[in-house]
Design a protein that fits this description.
181 residues, elongated, eight-stranded antiparallel sheet, 15% helix, four-stranded antiparallel sheet, alpha+beta
């Protein structure tokens, strides 16, 4: 009986440790709007790698989960501009970063608005939804402070028919063609 109690206690401790490690490293979020269509749709659940940016910096094209700097909301958007980048959005054309027109195959449609050239502040990121015309994002005049980023979108978990990796896209290759393998 004593060994049984000891095994139960050890099993509970191991279970609690595993649970806490998972909570610190992985998050689960539900997509709550249509701003990331067609890649992410309302009601989908995703896992977020909370450690992704502990060992490296966020990159252009990453799908991130973050706390909105203007509302008490958790949002999912794509990083377009890094700290120090110059970003501009031209109506019915494209987003430009440091004067380079981005090729964005994940877009639902081109932006029906223009956003003037800005320089992204240090420790901030310029984010846009893939559904540009139905997204509250940096074109509304705000950027995302680094400390607001929860993590990098990683895996679809719901619905089962969508299981797999999130559509992160390496936009750095467009700005620096020498990165092409």
């Amino acid at each position: 009986m004593r060994n049984f109690v000891k095994e139960v206690i050890v099993t509970l401790i191991i279970g609690i440790v595993i649970f806490l490690l998972l909570r610190l490293t992985v998050g689960s979020y539900t997509v709550v709007n249509i701003s990331m269509q067609p890649g992410l749709t309302e009601g989908q659940r995703i896992l977020v790698n909370k450690l992704a940016y502990r060992f490296g910096d966020p990159q252009r094209g990453d799908v991130i989960v973050f706390q909105s700097p203007i509302e008490d909301l958790t949002l999912v958007k794509r990083i377009i501009g890094l700290p120090g980048d110059e970003v501009e959005v031209k109506q019915n054309d494209a987003a430009y970063v440091n004067g380079v027109k981005l090729k964005e195959p994940y877009l639902k449609e081109l932006a029906g608005y223009s956003y003037p050239l800005i320089k992204v502040p240090l420790n901030n990121y310029f984010v846009l939804g893939d559904n540009r015309n139905a997204s509250s994002d940096s074109h509304a005049g705000w950027t995302v402070p680094r400390e607001n980023i929860v993590g990098r979108g990683w895996i679809f978990t719901w619905p089962p028919s969508k299981w797999g990796s999130l559509p992160n896209y390496d936009l750095n290759r467009e700005l620096n063609p020498s990165l092409t393998p």
